[in-house]
UniProtKB/TrEMBL annotation, chain A:
Residues 424-597 form the MIOS-like alpha-solenoid domain. GO terms for biological process: cellular response to amino acid starvation; central nervous system myelin formation; oligodendrocyte progenitor proliferation; positive regulation of TORC1 signaling; protein-containing complex localization. This is Meiosis regulator for oocyte development. The lineage of its organism: Eukaryota, Metazoa, Chordata, Craniata, Vertebrata. It comes from the Eukaryota. Belongs to the WD repeat mio family. PANTHER family: GATOR COMPLEX PROTEIN MIOS, WD40 DOMAIN-CONTAINING PROTEIN MIO FAMILY MEMBER.
From TrEMBL, chain B:
GO terms for molecular function: structural molecule activity. It holds the Pfam family WD40. The gene is SEH1L. Signal peptide: none annotated. WD repeats lie at residues 8-40, 274-306. InterPro entries: Sec13/Seh1_fam (IPR037363), WD40/YVTN_repeat-like_dom_sf (IPR015943), WD40_PAC1 (IPR020472), WD40_repeat_dom_sf (IPR036322), WD40_rpt (IPR001680). The keyword Cell division applies. Belongs to the WD repeat SEC13 family. PROSITE patterns: WD_REPEATS_2, WD_REPEATS_REGION. It is found in: Chromosome, Centromere, Kinetochore; Lysosome membrane; Nucleus, Nuclear pore complex. Keywords: Cell cycle, Cell division, Centromere, Chromosome partition, Kinetochore, Lysosome, Mitosis, mRNA transport, Nuclear pore complex, Nucleus, Protein transport, Repeat, Translocation, Transport, WD repeat. This is SEH1 like nucleoporin.
Length: 849, 358
């Protein structure tokens, strides 16, 4: 600790004080300060804490080691070991009460001057202070001083003392006779008292570790080792000791002291400090020279008794409390895993070592983690914009809002094409267009609004107009009239798109009209007028200024539709890349455009190319092209790969052809995954609705009946609807329930006319309608009976416990188990209601608002 | 915005694992105090401990739930070299009156000669199966042939991984196109450069698990590994917690290209690599859709990662282990890694070693 390398110590009892020692002792007070501004004279140690300097003590030069007095009182009493082997008691406290006065300034002087390497207060008898010294011939190197002793110095030593520190001549403060002298003819590098017994001292001597027993000083237990530095006892397991040598830490078990129980992986640089964490079991912190990392060894189990040879589980971790090299560190005595580190230039930082955090996501987007002994639940709160929301949250919300069950978008194919072309029911534009090869007629048109000669070739065929219908430009049955579509776009305020569609239908006047309307409408963009003006200046001349300006300026237009409009006007007939590859224009508009203006060969090539592009990108707009075919499944696969949105995929593909698409393994897998998701969220009602929806579109997915109920007497099924299905030999469900709620008047088996079992509560044969439940208030029954007739019939069904096989009317059973856990049948102690934990879970939809 | 709130856990020592059941209504925690606790979520969202019992004679490393169709079943593994299967018993004791549930030991799996470091139930469609891994480098796969009898488990497979195992993860995909698959991570920290993540696949023909892939680039100790919930994807996503967070994708090469019956070939890509924790990463966990990854590291922070549509992964949230938010401006030292640098490190990794195929 010579000048350059500061050391740091926490006060053992004042949890907010620590001392930094290099050439002088500086006492700091630490306090929490969350606010960003610093008080005058305080240093920031971390985001939450600052330190203020309380006092400085420079009375003791040549400091080699410092040890804090372990008792609460007197305040801030420290023992300082000096380069000459003297140990001085000094204080940093402000209050000088009588007790500390006696002690402060006391010096303990060895016979021969040599460096004091280490100091250790006895934790049980705080009057005992052990000092470890360098070797001096045959002299003792471990001296134990009694700080309460009042020996006067011998004259010989007094002269020496005067020579060394001339200022202090006060008699009575210098002690030269130690209580015990140990370690003759040896050097002592480190010391620690063993908590097992007041009189046991562990010392790291030159080339061995020794345990001195003060009850019998002639005996010592020792083991030869190089790891003699920094001996320290685990505060949680008093038999476990760590020491180090160069870059290696050795862990010892005092019960089998012959060799280290383990050595930790060697570090490249020599170690400077090794300390057990006082607030946590089995955590050892180590520091090497010139390093900004504190390496932690987490020994995650109690040391096993002797003889049990298990490999220890040690987790090695490293923390980096600051960017600079660390000179020293000190654990906080009580605050969990907290330490203060100090750098060579005396900057300090307050730091907490976090425990390894283990974490788990719950199915409902909350995250739970365990840090140390504490649990934290983390939930997403506040309104995140829909873009930021994760697909898991989105799907949950969509499922709650009946996503997929209402939308008509996906079956537009269906509606448009039924009866028209059977083979194309599920097809997309791609196959429609393919089938149109050769049937196309071309029409030459003149761009209206111009008088010059420039023919634009338009193509027409039945399939092409079908494609236009699918794109939404024209309606079924009507001629190629886009007016309704334009009107609806105008109503939505989608002016640019409406203008573009009008223009693509070669009605430049209508386009200008739309733009003007847009500019004059409330929220309209005035720039639209400018665009309209530019549009009206349209000329066919190849080399006109207008054309030149348009083709350069159009790239600066922000709106893709406006951009596409000018691209169309400035392009040569037959090459419309500026429109077709304007990626921000909706796919259906581009496809519709292509269907109007591209020749068969071009169109096919374009559609093919676009399809593949959209497929690779997983862009759902591409469904328009692929339809719900194998191609569509490929596209959807790429969409699912990117988004994980199996919900959309499932609903979408359900509309596909049962024989082809629905049998696809991938589609089945998406549906299975989506159902599983709904189950995990306890959206059981939604899952059931999905299943119903699914079985309408894919009858093969309908599950078979799960339970058959047979009569006690004749063994025949008592259900009417299922009577056609063979069911004999299912002896395990003897007591009966009718799966069909349709007949409620029959109290006998349809096969043998014997009566059905009785309800355990009303004692009337099953099959009779339920009389209103006794003792149930109206509020409980609000849904069950009055509102819906179907629900009322549910009360007539009968249910039974799988365990005790007692049962009765569902309504009666429900009302019974509202207040009871045991079976209603006398002498049956079956806890029917608690048998199934999942059964007690409530579907999540009923809780959600 | 993620907000964390503390729950009084009342464990007497470090908690090593947290695990949710299928519905997220129940939770299990295990600790160095040798016990397991089961928590139930009340209707108002509070967690209540409904069972706490001593499970092992050593630190309990991991706890995991079986799918509820097999009943209320837990498995735990411990330093005491065993893994244990637990089942909740209802209606047979007075525990319910005290609001406590009763768990009984169904079986103890004692095949390991060293600490059992991880235990995981196989995906539901494979039946009731359980995999364990141990510090001596053996992965064991057990099966309960009769799902109604949880006291009988037979050791079906023993895979020797040669390296001390720290974690396992089943591939959750239930697609028939994907064979059962298990990834194993090793925390072996001896100074060798062996790959620390191995992937084993079940071969229908030999009825054995065989090594399908090794992630050659992962040479540092691996602390956790997690396959993302598959959710209909045609490929698999694997997160690895080592000295940084890494996300791999495993794309099965189409069957028709590979010889039939053999092992699936995979095209493996590293899609993200983040060293924002600035230190060892301890755990990774996927959300239910496999779209958000949470990781925890030695910097005491929990970070959330999410990919955008272009498959660029980014940090979308940081919280400190004690639940307090990390404020970006006054960060110092280890907390220096900001949101922005996530992207750059990804870019670096992509420019550097990424996009290689094994």
């Amino acid at each position: 600790m010579s000048g350059s390398k500061p050391d740091i110590l926490w006060a053992p009892h004042h949890v907010d004080r620590f001392v930094v020692c290099d050439s002088e002792l500086s006492l700091y007070h630490i306090e929490s300060a969350v606010s960003s501004e610093l008080k005058a004279g305080s240093l920031r140690l971390s985001e939450e804490t600052t330190a203020t300097l309380l006092s400085i003590n420079s009375d003791t030069p040549y400091m080699k080691c410092v040890a804090w007095y372990p008792k609460y009182d007197p305040e801030c009493l420290l023992a300082v070991g000096q380069a000459n082997g003297r140990v001085v008691l000094t204080s940093l406290g402000q209050d000088h009460n009588s007790k500390s006065k006696e002690l402060i300034g006391k010096e303990f002087v060895p016979k021969h001057a040599r460096q004091c390497n280490t100091l250790a207060w006895n934790p049980l008898d705080s009057n005992w202070l052990a000092a470890g010294l360098d070797k001096h011939r045959a002299d003792f190197s471990v001296l134990i001083w009694d700080i309460s002793s009042k020996y006067t110095p011998e004259s010989a030593v007094a002269t020496e003392k005067v020579r060394l520190s001339a200022g202090d001549t006060e008699a009575g403060l210098v002690v030269t006779k130690p209580l015990y002298e140990l370690g003759q003819n040896d050097a002592c590098l480190s010391l620690c008292w063993l908590p097992r017994d007041q009189k046991l001292l562990l010392a790291g001597m030159h080339r061995n570790l020794a345990i001195f027993d003060l009850r019998n000083t002639s005996q010592k237990m020792f083991v030869n080792t190089k790891a003699v530095q920094g001996v320290t006892v685990d505060p949680y397991f008093h038999d476990r000791v760590a020491s180090f040598y160069e870059g290696q830490v050795a862990i010892w078990d005092l019960r089998k002291f012959e060799k280290p129980v383990l050595t930790l992986t060697e570090q490249p640089k020599p170690l400077t400090k090794v300390t057990w964490c006082p607030t946590r079991t089995g955590l050892l912190a180590t520091l090497t020279r010139d390093s900004n990392i504190i390496r932690l060894y987490d020994m995650q189990h109690t040391p096993t008794p002797i003889g049990d040879e298990t490999e220890p589980t040690i987790i090695e971790r490293s923390v980096q409390p600051c960017d600079n090299y660390i000179a020293s560190f000190a654990w906080h005595p009580t605050s969990q895993n907290r330490m203060v580190v100090v750098t060579p230039n005396r900057t300090m930082s307050d730091f907490t070592v976090f425990e390894r955090i283990s974490l788990a996501w719950s199915p409902v987007t909350s995250l739970m983690w365990a840090c140390g002994r504490h649990l934290y639940e983390c939930t997403e709160e506040g309104k995140a914009s829909s873009l930021e929301k994760d697909i898991a949250t989105k799907m949950r919300l969509r499922a709650l809002s009946r996503y997929g069950l209402d939308t008509e978008q996906v079956w537009r194919n269906h509606l448009l094409l039924t009866g028209n072309k059977g083979s194309l029911v599920y097809a997309g534009i791609k196959s429609i267009v393919k089938s149109s090869l050769g049937t196309t007629e071309s029409l030459r048109h003149r761009r209206s609004g111009s008088d010059r000669q420039a023919d634009i070739i338009q193509y027409l065929s039945e399939e092409r107009s079908l494609a236009l219908q699918l794109c939404g430009w024209i309606k079924k049955g009507m001629d190629l009239d886009v007016e309704p579509f334009l009107n609806s776009l105008e109503q939505e305020g989608d002016w640019e798109r409406a203008a573009a569609v009008a223009l693509f239908n070669l009605d430049i006047r209508r386009a200008i009209q739309i733009l003007n309307k847009g500019a004059s409408s409330g929220k309209g963009d005035l720039n639209l007028n400018v665009v309209a003006m530019a549009l009206s200046g349209y000329t066919d001349e190849k080399n006109s200024l207008w054309r030149e300006m348009c083709s350069t300026l159009r790239l600066q237009l922000n709106n893709p539709y406006l951009c596409a409009m000018f691209a169309f006007l400035t392009s040569e007939s037959g090459s419309y890349d500026g429109v077709l590859y304007e990626n921000k224009v909706a796919v259906r508009d581009r496809v519709a455009f292509a269907c109007k203006f591209l020749s068969d060969a071009q169109l096919n090539r374009f559609i093919e190319k676009l399809t593949n592009e959209l497929k690779d990108a997983g862009n759902l707009e591409g469904i328009l092209l692929t339809g719900l075919t194998k191609d569509g499944v490929d596209l959807m696969e790429s969409y699912v790969d990117r988004t994980g949105d199996v919900q959309t995929a499932s609903y979408c593909m359900l509309q596909g052809s049962p024989s082809d698409v629905l049998k696809d393994e991938r589609v089945q897998y998406w549906i299975e995954n989506y159902r599983n998701l709904l189950d995990a969220w306890r959206f059981w009602h939604k899952r059931a609705e999905f299943d119903i929806h699914r079985s309408k579109l894919d009858p093969s997915s309908k599950p078979l009946a799960q339970v058959f109920v047979s009569c006690n007497f004749c063994g025949k099924s008592i259900s009417y609807s299922c009577s056609a299905i063979p069911h004999q030999g299912r002896g395990f469900s003897q007591y009966g329930v009718s799966g069909s709620p349709t007949k409620s008047k029959v109290t006998s088996c349809p096969g043998c006319r014997k009566p059905l079992p009785r309800c355990a509560l009303c004692l009337i044969n099953m099959g009779t309608p339920v009389s209103s439940c006794p003792g149930v208030s109206k509020s409980d029954e609000k849904v069950d009976l009055s509102k819906d007739k179907k629900l009322a019939q549910f009360n007539n069904w009968f249910t039974w416990c799988h365990n005790c096989r007692h049962g009765g009317h569902a309504g009666h059973m429900l009302s019974w188990f509202r207040d009871h856990t045991e079976c209603p049948v006398s002498a049956c102690s079956c806890k029917c209601m608690q048998l199934d934990t999942t059964g007690n879970l409530i579907p999540a939809e009923t809780i959600q608002p | 915005m993620f907000v964390a709130r503390p729950i009084a856990a009342d464990h007497r020592d470090l908690i090593h694992d947290v695990s949710f059941d299928f519905h997220g209504r129940r939770m299990a925690t295990c600790s160095s105090d040798q016990s397991v606790k089961v928590w139930d979520k009340s209707e108002n969202g509070d967690w209540r401990c409904t069972a706490s019992w001593k499970t092992h004679s050593g630190s309990v490393w991991r706890v995991t739930w079986a799918h509820p169709e097999f009943g209320q079943v837990l498995a735990s593994c411990s330093f005491d070299r065993t893994a244990v299967v637990w089942e909740e018993i209802v209606g047979e004791s007075n525990d319910k009156l005290r609001g406590q549930s009763h768990w009984v030991k169904r079986t103890t799996l004692v095949d390991s000669r060293t600490s059992v470091t991880d235990v995981k139930f196989a995906p539901k469609h494979m039946g009731l199966m359980l995999a364990t891994c141990s510090a001596d480098g053996v992965v064991r796969i057990y099966e309960a042939p009769d799902v109604m009898n949880l006291s009988q488990w037979s050791l079906q497979h023993e895979i020797s991984c040669k390296l001390s195992c720290s974690c396992i993860s089943w591939n959750p995909s239930s697609s028939r196109a994907h064979s059962p698959m298990i990834a194993v991570g090793s925390d072996d920290n001896s100074p060798n450069i062996l790959a620390k993540v191995q992937i084993y696949e079940y071969n229908e023909n030999t009825r054995k698990y065989a090594k399908a892939e090794t992630l050659m680039t992962v040479t540092d100790p691996v602390h956790d590994i997690a396959f993302a919930p598959n959710l209909g994807r045609s490929f698999h996503i694997l997160a690895v917690a080592t000295k940084d967070v890494r996300i791999f994708t495993l794309k099965p090469v189409r069957k028709e290209l590979t010889s039939s019956g053999g092992l699936t070939k995979f095209e493996i890509q590293i899609v993200a690599q983040f060293d924002n924790h600035n230190s060892q990463v301890w755990r990774v966990s996927w959300n239910i859709t496999g779209t958000v990854l949470a990781s925890s590291g030695d910097d005491g922070c929990v970070r959330l990662w999410k990919a955008n549509y272009m498959d660029n992964w980014k940090c979308t949230g940081i919280l400190k282990g004690n639940g307090s938010p990390v404020n970006g401006s006054s960060q110092q030292g280890v907390f220096n890694a900001s949101l922005g640098s996530a992207n750059t490190s990804l870019q670096n990794s992509l420019n550097g070693s990424a996009k290689h195929t094994f």
